[in-house]
Design goal:
This protein has about 160 residues and is an all-alpha fold. The chain is built from 9 helices and no strands. It has a single domain, classed as Arp2/3 complex 21 kDa subunit ARPC3, CATH 1.10.1760. The chain is about 70% helix and about 0% strand.
């Protein structure tokens, strides 16, 4: 992997800001048990360039500061995204499998967090929390992320910009 440059830092900042903006625009679907976090489709970018991971992780962290689950979601949700991004980078040669990683890790980690935190209020069974978070991530990654992935792969200008 090439050295991390100032240009890489700037691109990561832009990606992180875009992630945060999408979460806030679609905040009504970005949190709680049933969630379709539209910004998650941006995770496909690490399939083109692993150096884009810091911007996505920072975007997740900053977005989760607005979570109804508070600081717990800020830390746990960011951990889930970090695990998903790491797995995506390791599986980037198998894109369809890599796209499952956000659904799997967020389903498990965020699903467990929702289950655990809901024990003091209305009980949400773990399998229910896992299923809803998994489903939301799966839909976003395959309905939005996959077509965008193929579009970037075919568009030489965008592909070249991301793989610098």
């Amino acid at each position: 992997m090439k050295k991390f440059t100032i240009e890489d830092l700037a691109i990561n900042a832009i990606i992180g800001a875009f992630y945060v903006a999408l979460v806030f625009i679609f905040s009504f679907t970005s949190f709680e048990v049933v969630q379709f976090r539209i910004a998650e489709f941006l995770l496909i970018l690490v399939l083109f360039n692993p150096k884009l991971a810091p911007g996505l992780i920072l975007g997740t962290f900053l977005s989760n500061l607005n979570s109804p689950f508070g600081i717990v979601d800020t830390l746990v949700g960011t951990l889930a995204s970090t695990l998903a991004i790491t797995a995506m980078i390791l599986l980037r040669k198998i894109p369809l499998l890599a796209l499952l990683m956000p659904a799997l890790f967020n389903g498990l980690v965020v699903g467990y967090m929702i289950y655990y935190l809901s024990l003091t209020e209305t009980i949400v069974p773990f399998i229910g929390a896992f299923s809803w978070v998994f489903l939301g991530e799966f839909v976003v990654m395959f309905v939005i992320g996959l077509p965008v992935y193929y579009y970037i792969r075919k568009n030489k200008n965008i592909h070249d910009l991301l793989t610098k």
